[in-house]
Task: inverse folding
């Protein structure tokens, strides 16, 4: 199953999706905050969100799994 | 009764007001507005603006040598070079040199972006400034507030207010000044270049970095010692991971405390008689020129490096070689993501950005060594 990875280290600022949501390529799904700047993360695939691995406020490293798309 | 009243009025500051004072009030109010309403570098502009306002109230003697309250802050903090190195201590405790360690060639970008400084140095001499003044103006191109204050207070203290305000103003204006130059000097294709993931940097490397670079830089350029030693000490605090209290004290409490005295003192140097001269306009103009040339030279340096690199770098990160940390890196990230929304350049831009800080300090030390 495709995983959505954090392209950049930072804190999870906002999660714009919920488990079960249908998402499309290039949808804005999560906003990370790094160096006081909001960075939107876009979806890489079409599908349904089957799991969200982070919650708002979490610190993530580059390459961490943010969500799983089924 | 009338006499007492008359005396009271005559001894008040109001009758000693000059037109210059009123203009300086206006300058103070503009800066207050920018700080409060626009939030341009408010941590500095707010105390600077208030400093300007209070020294332009006649007969308060706040900047009177040996007597005035703010004069003491200025004398002990800035004239004696205490505050800028302390700011660097805090900066060191906040900076992550990881991206620079992971990609050491970005050091060249930090050096490349210092070109504007030297170009401006000669331009300022052509405009009739003497060598020491020219150096103080040129350093604005490094976009590093504490270094600008450090160098100007040693070489041309009469220009301190103007160079400090223009350095901080241009740092705040990074998102407005830099993007047009970035777009002019790069192609759409270049801006879209996605850079590969930075290699991980071990804790040992991060601990060794401040020690080794402090030794290397200070052996090569001893005049950089006050700023570099404090910067690297702060970074060693942070990366060692064993003195969290000292890291926090340096980057929060101490930094905030000295920022108050720094801003107030810098503002207080701006009395009508020192600030209201045509020279000041030239300083702002030349400072902007320095900043633009530095941005351009960083970009061109990156494009030049690409001629030899197999894994191309995105030339935008060259613009982060000016030291405004992290404003310039954020700006690079933003312009990069406009070209390609999946382009995350932030961390890649932090490499040249922190290298720029070191580059500006070294440049300042070289100027100081030769002109001080």
Result:
């Amino acid at each position: 199953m495709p995983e959505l990875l954090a392209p950049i280290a930072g804190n999870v600022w906002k999660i714009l999706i919920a488990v079960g949501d249908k998402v499309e390529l290039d949808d804005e799904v999560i906003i990370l905050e790094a160096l006081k700047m909001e960075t939107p993360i876009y979806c890489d695939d079409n599908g349904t969100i089957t799991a969200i691995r982070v919650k708002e406020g979490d610190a993530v490293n580059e390459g961490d799994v943010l969500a799983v798309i089924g | 009764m009338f006499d007492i009243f008359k005396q009271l009025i005559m001894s008040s500051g109001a009758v000693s007001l000059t037109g210059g004072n009123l203009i300086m009030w206006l300058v103070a109010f503009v800066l207050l507005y920018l700080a409060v309403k626009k939030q341009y570098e408010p941590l500095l502009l707010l105390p600077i603006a208030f400093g300007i306002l209070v020294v332009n109230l006649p007969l308060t003697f706040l900047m009177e040598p040996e007597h005035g309250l703010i004069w003491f802050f200025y004398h002990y903090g800035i004239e004696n070079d205490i505050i800028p190195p302390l700011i660097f201590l805090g900066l060191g405790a906040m900076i992550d040199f990881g991206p620079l360690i992971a990609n050491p060639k970005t050091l060249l970008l930090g050096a490349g972006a210092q070109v504007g400084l030297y170009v401006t140095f000669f331009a300022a001499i052509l405009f009739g400034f003497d060598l020491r003044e020219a150096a103080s103006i040129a350093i604005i191109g490094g976009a590093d507030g504490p270094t600008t204050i450090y160098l100007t207070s040693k070489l041309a203290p009469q220009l301190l207010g103007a160079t400090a305000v223009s350095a901080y103003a241009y740092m705040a204006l990074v998102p407005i000044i830099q993007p047009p130059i970035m777009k002019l000097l790069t192609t759409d294709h270049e801006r879209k270049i996605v850079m590969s993931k930075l290699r991980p940097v071990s804790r040992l490397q991060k601990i060794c970095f401040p020690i080794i670079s402090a030794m290397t830089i200070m052996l090569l350029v001893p005049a950089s010692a006050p700023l570099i030693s404090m910067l690297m000490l702060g970074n060693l605090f942070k990366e060692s991971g064993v003195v969290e209290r000292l890291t926090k004290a340096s980057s929060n409490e101490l930094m905030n405390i000295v920022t108050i005295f720094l801003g107030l003192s810098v503002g207080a140097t701006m009395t009508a008689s020192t600030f209201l001269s045509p020279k000041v306009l030239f300083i702002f103009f030349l400072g902007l020129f320095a900043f633009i040339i530095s941005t351009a030279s960083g970009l061109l340096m990156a494009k030049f490096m690409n001629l030899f690199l197999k894994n191309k770098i995105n030339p935008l990160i060259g613009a982060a070689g000016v030291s405004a940390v992290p404003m310039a890196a954020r700006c690079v990230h933003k312009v990069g993501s406009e070209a390609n929304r999946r382009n995350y350049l932030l961390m890649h831009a932090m490499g040249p950005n922190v290298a720029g800080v070191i580059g500006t300090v070294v440049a300042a030390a070289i100027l100081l060594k030769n002109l001080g």
The interface with chain B takes residues 7-9, 26, 34-37, 39-40, 42, 62-63 of chain A (CB under 8 Å). The CA atoms of residues 12 and 32 of chain A lie 5 Å apart.
